[in-house]
Design a protein that fits this description.
heterodimer; A: 399 residues; alpha/beta; 6-stranded parallel sheet; 15 helices; B: 141 residues; 3-stranded antiparallel sheet; 5 helices; 42% helix; 13% strand; elongated
């Protein structure tokens, strides 16, 4: 089959790889209908997460059709249209039974790597390096889905592939941000990053009844997009005095919940950015955390900061003093998709959560390297590039 | 040139001696059990005599003394294996066997380390290859 492969730092190619096969009786094989780039892929692409082997297939956010099932699969049949959680979880360990699916004890096939790096191993993830299990990704014609009864969800008939696709990861991650922040009526929520995850966090906060939602970014087209689809305000990170504006909005308190949706390649001001990049290049730190710094600084006393962006290992200049002295609660996780996807599909079915606009560029899998280039450079207003491994589908043809 | 060669040989001999001494020293975790928590009720995993009930655990007994205790709260059962043999390789095999037993008891399947096709092996990929080879048998367990 054809697949989009990582072949070196900042090098992608579409090549031919072996078709996946059922390895366990709880697996299904999915023919991928749509699969989408994610900001966290850029960390892999750029070599910031050095656990990729040449030839690894990228992609972890996808929707498709079940074409083969293992003998122990009960929830799915051939022909089911499914969206699959990007994180692979067994559904039976202590963490899964407490709905902490991305912490699954049994989802990561290579636990030693992250045990050494982080102290314990989180679950596995499709197409996200050998540190996260070394599973083949979804930027391919077919993908094997382990523990399919736990991680794959039937898509309601009235939800298009283009919409359901984002339940796989970005909408679930955004929803988790609002959930971990315990966002509810009366809250002012500030979100750093207007990519797909940030936009979904804003949508989640609004749906959960936040009093005021404000999204901060430096790209005008992304700010315009989130305003068009979510009842929220926006601030331009460079043109607006973000701190002053947040204080004015909250009469001097600061946002109750600050959500970081940028990750380890964030850009701050020119000096901060230069220092962070030098430290990163010298391996004095692995991550550039400027958005986390801002979220902590601007959060009100006693508020909650939620980190949704992906970080790899070590960061310098972490404002622990502000965190401690302001009595903040810091929460974070990789995405517990299995916990949120059913509700997200329900919201999508009722039209209360729209996502398809996030897929700004739809193209064939063969165009994958070009899609990532556009996505990385944020060229032509690209928020997410969506690939169609099976060629143009009826939804695309209708457009 | 002779001086450089002699210095190289001396350095090599010193390094070999250091390595041999290091290997001969008792391991820091000498005698320590390998331990993990299985999310299954204690009563399900032991019989009335306190012996392991499932085959997945009984098969570990050949590797050393097995100790099962109820875990606090809702975690299930704590399993400790005191290995009979205390070499690095044996301990790695024991670790992987213990992990496999947990996976089987919790999910009915094992998830061995991945072995995907690598298109091109490079010098910089060697450390990763080593890390992946040890990914199932290494770690902090």
């Amino acid at each position: 089959m054809r697949a989009l492969q990582w072949v070196g730092v900042n090098r992608l190619e579409v090549g031919t790889v072996p078709d996946p096969a059922i390895e366990h009786d709880q697996d299904v094989i999915v023919r991928v209908g749509r699969t989408v780039t994610c900001g966290s892929d850029l960390h892999l692409l750029g070599g910031y997460i050095p656990f990729m082997r040449s030839g690894d297939v990228l992609g972890h956010e996808f929707v498709g059709e079940v074409v083969e099932t293992g003998s122990a699969v009960r929830e799915h049949s051939v022909g089911d249209r499914v969206v699959v959680s990007s994180f692979i979880a067994c559904g039976r360990c202590w963490y899964c039974e407490h709905e902490l699916y991305s912490l699954c004890d049994n989802g990561n096939r290579n636990p030693a790597i992250t045990e050494q790096l982080w102290g314990s191993a989180p679950g596995g993830c499709f197409g996200y390096s050998h540190a996260m299990g070394g599973y083949a990704g979804s930027h391919a014609e077919y993908v094997r889905v382990p523990f399919a009864d736990v991680g794959a969800f039937r898509v309601p008939d009235d939800v298009s592939d283009a919409r359901a696709l984002f339940a796989s990861d970005s909408a679930a991650t955004g929803w988790m941000g609002a959930d971990l922040g315990d966002v509810g009526p009366g809250d002012t929520v500030a979100i750093w990053g207007a990519g797909a995850v940030g936009q979904m966090a804003a949508a989640a906060a609004a749906i959960r009844g936040a009093e005021r939602v404000v999204v901060i970014d430096r790209l005008d087209e992304r700010l315009a997009m989130v305003r068009a689809h979510v009842p929220c305000e926006t601030l331009h990170e460079q043109r607006d005095d973000v701190g002053q504006a947040l204080l004015e909005m909250t009469a001097g308190r600061g946002p109750d919940v600050c959500i970081e949706a940028v990750g380890m390649e964030a850009s701050g001001g020119p000096v901060e950015d230069a220092v962070d990049r030098v430290k990163q290049q010298l391996r004095l730190q692995t991550d550039r955390p400027s958005a986390v710094r801002r979220a902590i600084y601007h959060c009100r006393k006693g508020g909650t900061v939620v980190v949704l962006g992906v970080f790899a290992a070590l960061t310098d200049g972490f404002p622990l003093g502000a965190l401690m002295n302001k009595g903040l609660t810091l929460r974070s996780a990789q995405m517990h998709g299995q916990r949120y996807i059913p509700r997200l599909l329900d919201l999508m079915s009722r039209g209360e959560l729209v996502t398809e606009h996030l897929g700004t560029h739809v193209m064939s899998l063969e165009d994958g390297p070009r899609g990532y280039e556009m996505f990385k450079e944020k060229a032509d207003g690209c928020v997410r590039a969506v690939f169609l491994p099976g060629g143009l589908d009826t939804e695309t043809a209708a457009v | 040139m002779k001086v450089v060669g002699a210095a190289g040989v001396a350095a090599g001999v010193t390094a070999a001696a250091w390595w041999a001494r290091k290997q001969a020293r008792p391991r820091p975790d000498h005698g320590a059990p390998l331990a993990l928590t299985v999310h299954r009720p204690y009563q399900e995993l032991v019989d009335d005599d306190g012996a392991p009930r499932p085959e997945e655990l009984r098969s570990l007994s050949g590797r050393g003394r097995l100790e099962l205790t109820p875990a606090p709260g809702t975690f299930g059962t704590e399993v400790r294996l005191y290995p009979d043999q205390d070499c690095t390789t044996c301990r790695s095999e024991d670790r992987q066997a213990l992990r496999a037993a947990k996976q089987l008891l919790e999910t009915g399947a094992t998830m061995p380390p991945d072995s995907p096709v690598t298109r091109r092996r490079t010098v910089t990929s060697i450390p990763l290859e080593i890390a992946i080879r040890r990914a199932g048998a290494g770690g902090r367990l």
